[in-house]
Structures are given as structure tokens and as C-alpha cells.
Records
---
Amino acid sequence: MTLDVPTLAVVAGTVSVMQSVAFVVVWSLNRQIPGIGRWTMCSMLSAAILLLVSSRLWLDLPLLTQLLPTLLNWTAAAFFYAGAAAFQGRRASLKWPLLACIPLLIGYVWFGLIDPDLRLRPLFYTPGVVIFLGLGARELFTERRPGLRFATAMSGYATALYCLSLVYRALTLSVFGAPAALLANVPSQTILFVSSLLWVLGWTFTAMLLVNQRQSFEKQQAHRAQMAAAEELTRTEIALAMTERELVAERAQRQQQSLLRDLHDGVGGVTANLVLLASLGRGEENSPERKELLRHIEQLAIEGNREVRLLMDVLQKGSVEWSPFLQELREHAKKLTAAQRIALDWQVVGKLPPEPLADVAAQLSLMRALKEAIHNLTRHSQARHARIRVSFRPRWVAVRIEDDGIGIHPAAPAQGGGRGMANMRRRSEELGGRLTVRSGPGCRLRFTIPLPIRFASIAKKPPICELASSATTSGSWAI
């Protein structure tokens, strides 16, 4: 039984049109797959080529039925190669293949239109197609990913068989002198259209299989990436939990150090003075001096009780508004200055911040620093007038405490003794601010603290043993 070549041409053209429709549908649904768009163009051009070739049964226009199909065939083969390279994640190198097609096109035009020789024309047509299809098959054979190797190998072998059929036809026509008409019923032309039909069907099947396998491969990769991300998230959570425990431990140590400083500046100073006065009182008989010592002991006991209640109130209430905070500080300053017959000028300038002092450690540290400064003023300044000015600005608050007393002796910082000034300076730094001191005549201390007030640790921390041992020296002038 002899296959009718014109019928094969029509069947191949019809199948090729159906293939192009299938590729368009697949491309519209899977545009994220690299190379599928170029393969769709290849299938559409192949369908147009076979339709133009089949039209030779009714038309005799060499430019339309001979030259144009040849150019479209080379273009379709180039799209096939570009799609295969893109599918493998590479860029197609088209420069040298296109340059090689220039002399082939010249020879094809010469022997097809100017000096018609049907036997030699396939020798110029076939190499261009074989070059591009062979490069595409080579790209497919380089696939190494599991699940994709079978389909790419099938597509590569189908392309290679189609190229062999083209080479066989060219050699048969040029060497053995077989009839050269494209639609002639000879074995070479039959093999050409049968191989074309098989390549269209085989490439369509393998291309659909590649799309499906590529989607499965990408899903597996996404699942592995999700598992890796979950493991990394677990490791991160474990690391964060460890860091959080370390921060909690550091915060507990910092709070312990802050509590030691508060005990030193508050209750520690009161109890140290009580011990000193009690030891002096043992040597006194009934005399005005003894009564005076007892009066001081009573005042210190009351002060110690106030310090303990202050600690309890701060820990219990948490946040406090600025108004009661300043009222507490003013009453404390008025009481101490009145006892020493020092005239006090109290001023508050600016608008109070709307947010309260929410940080317990910050408000306690600020109150301690300011009370320490007022204690130093009343104990050692020998002043007659004092001024406390609290100035509020949008981003900071400044507290200036000044007097007209004897000032600070230059040798005082080198005498050791108490650590009141060092503690005031450190408390200012822990609140993010600074303390400036000027002396002569009188003394002026200025605390500048940013708003909102928060407690933050600083680089250098005094040893706990040093803070604890310093509690017995808080009664001396600590500057």
C-alpha cells in the first residue's frame, strides 16, 4: 500500500494546527514556565508552514509556497532552540547560527528562483533547520533534574529523528537523483511527511508531559523550601527564647543593682546616720546635747519610714503622674530647707507632659537623684537662699538646683568617702541625660533628662559588692 503524499501533507497540516491551538491553551495557563511561549510560537509557525506547503496543490507562487515556508521553517526551528534553552534556564546563542543561515539563504534563492534546480535546493534548505533543531535537542539532553529527564530525552530523540529524515531527503534528492517535487509520491517525500507528522505528535506529547512534570518539580521544591523555612523558624524561635532568657536574667541583675543603689541612697543613709547618732548618744548624759541627738534620731527614723513607704508606693502603683511626683519632691525640699532656715524658691516652667512616668525604675531613679541633690544642699552648702527650677520642653525636662552657699571644695572629689555625686551622675546617664555641676560662688546642679523618661542600662556597671559596701558611707558629702 502506497501512502499518498498530498494526503499526508494535508493531514500533517491539520494536526499541526491542532497542536498550535493546544500550545496556545497550555501557554495561557502556564506562562510562568520558562520557554513555553517560544515553543508556542514554534508550533504556530509550523502549522503555517504545512498549510502553505499544502497549498501547492492549488497555487503556483514560488515566493508564497517555497521561499516563505523556508524562512518560516528556519524561524520556527530557532524558536524551538530558544524555548529549549529557556526551559533549561539558559540563554540561546543565536548569533552564529543566524550568520550561517545567510549563505544558505542565498544558495536557496539562487537554485529555487533564479536557476531552478530542485535536486540542489534541499542542500541549502536542510542545514538551517538541522542546526537550530539540533541545538534545541542538545539543550534537552542536558536535563539532569529527576522527573524531567524522561520527557526531555523523548523530545530530544523525536527531534533528532526528524532531523535525520530531513538529511535523508536532501541526500536522496541530490545524490541519487530522485524526483524533487515536494508532493511527489516517492519514498523520500513520504518519509519526510511521516516524520513531520510523528515529530508534531511526539513533541506535543512530550511538551505537555514536561509542563506537568515541571509543575510537580516546582511544587516539590516549594514544599522543601517551606520545610526548610519552618526548620529555620524553629531554630530562630529557640534562639529568641534563649536570648529572651538572657535578657530577663540581665534585667533581673540590673533591677537588683538599682535596688541596691536605692537602698544606699535612701534607707542606707538614714540607718547609717542613726547608728552614728546612737553611738554619740551613749556618751552623753541628760543634757541639751542629748536631747538634740534624740531629736535627730527621731527625724531620721521618720525619714527612714518615708523612704520605705516611697519604695512600696512606687512598686505598688507603677506609673505616676507628673503632678504628684513634683508635689512629693517639693514637700521634701521645703521640709529639709526649712529645717536649715534656707529660703526656698520653687518654680515649674512649661507644660507638664501628658504621659505619666510609666517606668518604675526610671521614676524611682530620678526621685533618688533629685533628693540626693537636695540633701547635699541642706547638709553642706551653708546657704541662706536656694532655688529649684523645673523646666519642661517638648523633648526634655531640666531640673536646676542652686544655692548661695560655700560651693564645692576643689579637693572634695579626691577625698573618697561617700558616692552620692557619682550615683547622681550615673542615674542621669541611665535615664539618657546628663548632670552638670558648677561651683563658686554657691553651687548649681542641672539635671537634663530626655522625655519620655525611661530607664536604660549603660556600658559600665559598678560591682554589686561596691554598691552594698557604700551604704555605710552615705552620710558624708559625696562629691
---
Amino acid sequence: MINWRADLPKWQQIVRVIKRRIESGEYPPGRLITERAIIEEFEVAKVTSRKAMAGLRDLGLVYTRPNLGSFVGPEPADED
């Protein structure tokens, strides 16, 4: 469980935690990250989880593939 800071929104704090995990290698490239996992681990609402996921995408740390999920980047090149 995280000790929430009052000066930052929860979604931003979640982004920081996951960013550290990605940078440390705990979450390797290609690892699936789900909104459900964020909700369960951090005990937050769906909207908070979605904001965190959007923040991770905005930072280029994860990419989302429709009908597959969100994964730790970098996004692989499409093979045609």
C-alpha cells in the first residue's frame, strides 16, 4: 500500500511508482499493465486508474494496442 501524499493527485503518484518500476527493470519491456491491476494494487477508483494509464502513455512509458492491452514500451515496430 502506498502512503498517499496530500499535495499530488493519486494518479500522478501511481505514475511515479510505476515509472520507477519500469526504470529499475522490475517491469520489463512488453510487460502487460492493466487498469484492473492498478485498481487492485493501489485501491483506487477506475477513473484514477485510467488517468494513471493515460499519464504513463503521455510519458511514452507504455503503449496500448486495441483489444490486447497496455504494455511497457518501447512500442515495437509493426511488421508488415
---
Amino acid sequence: MTKSYEEINEKIKNGNCVVATAEEMIKIVEDKGIKVAAEDVDVVTTGTFGPMCSSGAFLNFGHSDPPIKFNKLFLNDVEAYHGNGAVDCYIGCTRMSEIKPFKYGGGHVLEDLVSGKSVRLKGNSYTTDCYPLANIDTEITIQDINQAILCNPRNAYQRYVCAVNSSDKTLYTYMGKLLPRFGNAHFAGAGCLNPLSNDPDYETIGIGTRIFLGGGVGYVIGEGTQHCPGNRMGTIFVKGDLKQMNSKFISGVGYEKYGTSMLIGVGIPIPILNERLAKKTAINDDEIITDVIDYGIPRRDRPILRQVSYKELKSGRIKIKDKSIKCASLSSLPKSIKIAETLKNWIQKGKFFLNPPAETLSLEKVLKPMKQK
């Protein structure tokens, strides 16, 4: 049994497309078997909501009068990168405010813009004949900006490690506050709802795949940085129109003594083109395995203490060396479920159609460490 994108999109257009969330697909396959599930279900929706540090946005402010060519610029006291056109910039979510470090950063600026709030723009220039203005200090909203393009080089890890700390001191990390002597454990990802876990061989995911991004429509534009399919740690490079997005699914976050990031919602529809995809989208949390890593050892090749399933992680406790440890997620499972359900609703109402990828993600890439001499 095979289906095509054209057949599925025609069903979406006609209002008779059968859509299931990844959690629902598990039950459908259990009850009916893979063959019947493949025939009955047309699309499976996925979702994840969590910190995605390799994220940011390109913004174009339009030209001032007289014109300015930014040398440095700040949005709510967060420095944005200028190395593009005169009034273009890229603001990254981990860049921190010079006034409120660790509490406010680029991700918060983007959340404020999406929420419709005013943001203070300050910039200076070395001036040229065609750009004579030296300084500017103004207030902008997202509606004042010409383009606001969320452009995230690494999102939606296929799975992520679980972090613990064996040392005698508290560690403040991108995995949150890790208590000493295995006092707690933190993980990320939505397990069976995670987009790349539902198509681990990337049959349907690649350049041009239409996705849910931050509450709006976005696209996969390639493999993400640190894409490592061999370790089931694939990533995607995504973009979307920030003006379409919703602050329920894109928000800044600060981590004590570490820095800032941004929580982003990503959902990918998986077309059930064949029985293989029906089977893959019925993956359970107990089938998704990740490594428990000791962050108390300060080196790149930290030891793997054990492997653990997402079922165990989601239970709230894991065992390390016969010790039961409280475990918490940096990702939001309720938001992940909401994303999958929202995407399902869009498809059922004929508001969202599927794109076949122009090129699927690589299965060959290997993650290499930095070369140090």
C-alpha cells in the first residue's frame, strides 16, 4: 500500500483527510495493526516545545531620514549582529542584555516583538556620504519592521541527553541547575511526540518541508548544525515569518548563572505514504533511548553512566548507581501535545497542506569536535 503527497493533499482539500497525533497513532497501530493503520491514517502530527539555543531572527528596519548604516545596534539593550545591509541585523536568542544579563536576552526581544510590544532600537554609525546619520534612538513594533524572519540553524533535536552531576558543587548549565552528588537529573525533548523520532530516516523531512513553527507556518531549509543521524541526534535548520507567530509558542528564557535562550514550538506533519512510516510513527517512549551524561566531569568525552528510555525519564525519577533521582524536563509536554493537536486541526480544516521535500536530510553526516592544536 502506498500513497502520494498529491493524494493526501487532495483529501485535505476535500476535508476527508484522516489525521492522528503521534500519541494517537500508537494506539491505532496497537488496535488495528500496521497494515490497516497505514491504509486508514493519512497524516501523523508531531510536536515539541523546549529551549533551542541556536535560534534568532533577521530583521529589516527600513531606512531612516537621513539614512544610517549601522555599525552597532541594540534592541532593548541586547546587541544585535550587524554585518549585512545598512539596516538589516540578526539577533540571536543567547545574546544577553547589557542591563539585565542572565534574565533578558535576544529570545525575550523576539517574544516582545511577537507579543506586539514596543522595543527600543538604539544604533550608531561611522557615517559615510550616503549614510550621514551617526546615531538613532527610537521605538519600534513588529508592524514597523519590513521583514522579521525567524531563522534557526539548529532546532528539534531528534533526542537529547539526560544530564546529571556527580561533583560536590552545584553546576549552572544549559541543562539547567544540576545539584551535586546526583541530586537531580534534567532532560529535553518530547519523546514519542518529537518530530524527528517519528521519521528517523528522514523519508519525508528535508528542504521545503512545511512545518508548524512558533505558532505559525515555517519551513525546513536543510539539516541543522551538529546534525548527527548516526547517533539518532538529527537536527533541522528552519525559517518562518515572525509576524505570523504566537508568543504561546515562542518565548525567551533565562538560566541562572548560565545565560539566555528561547523556547520554541516545532511540529512536523508526517504523511503516511507506506507501511514503513506507519510503523515508525507508532514509536513508543520506551523505544526511544538516550544517554545519561555526567556533567560533573569537565571534559568533552564525559562518561555515559547508563542508557535510559523516555518512558523512564517522563516518570519523574531515574536510577543512577542504585540511587533514585528526581528527573525533570526542560521541554513542555503539554505544549508539545498542543502543537501536535493544533497542526492536526489546521490540516483537518484545510488550512495546511504538505510539501514533499526537494532534498531529504542527510543520513551520512558525522559530528566532529573542534580541532585544537
